[in-house]
Design brief:
The chain is of the alpha+beta class. It has five helices and nine strands, in the order H-H-E-H-E-E-H-E-E-H-E-E-E-E.
Length: 186
């Protein structure tokens, strides 16, 4: 259950040092007694998705990065940084868990290499379903990715800026913006 909170543990049935550390971090984040024991209070918080959990959970950069690394998804930024307030960075701070899960599901379903180039950093268009609000992720338009989107998802037409739009069966929208794909996860 700790992995749904971005800890990226290997599921092997062993409560080893990594699991102990993740349990303690989770307890600290939830304001619980920090003892590394998954007792009734910790289990209730894990199972209920209360506090920082749940599908609309906002992730820290470290949580999202751990999820992406565990899934084999890479990322880069032109500024080699992750500061959310710097448009040259690629930040995952305040990314919705639904968006992180969406790009991971996309990568698994497509079998393609996914390389993220934009997250929640400033400098993108504003709006409710924006990068800043954690709904969007930009990724490189490798041929495998582009072939998968255009061959699998429904073509919706073009946006006012000319970007071709495609919609997945789950209702997520992928816009081809030339230098990258812009994915919106609902």
């Amino acid at each position: 259950m700790l992995n749904k909170y971005g800890y990226g543990l290997v599921v092997d049935g062993d409560f080893g040092p990594g699991t102990d550390s993740a349990a303690r971090d989770f307890q600290s984040d939830q304001g619980l007694a920090v003892d590394g024991i998954v007792g009734p209070d910790t289990w209730r918080a894990l199972a209920s998705g209360s506090g920082s959990g749940g599908t609309d959970e906002k992730l820290t950069h470290a949580q999202a990065a751990a999820m992406f690394q565990s899934a084999g998804i890479s990322w880069s930024s032109s500024g080699n940084c992750s500061n959310r307030y710097n448009s040259s960075c690629t930040s995952f701070d305040q990314l919705r868990r639904t968006s992180a899960d969406g790009i991971i599901a996309f990568q698994r379903a497509s079998g393609c290499t996914v390389h993220i180039t934009g997250g929640t950093e400033t400098g993108h268009a504003s709006g409710t379903y924006s990068h800043w609000n954690g709904y969007k992720i930009d990724f490189a338009p490798y041929s495998c990715v582009s072939d998968y989107v255009t061959g699998t998802f429904d073509y919706l037409g073009t946006r006012s800026d000319g970007a071709a739009l495609y919609e997945s069966g789950a209702g997520n929208v992928y816009a081809h913006e030339g230098s990258h794909w812009d994915a919106t996860y609902y």
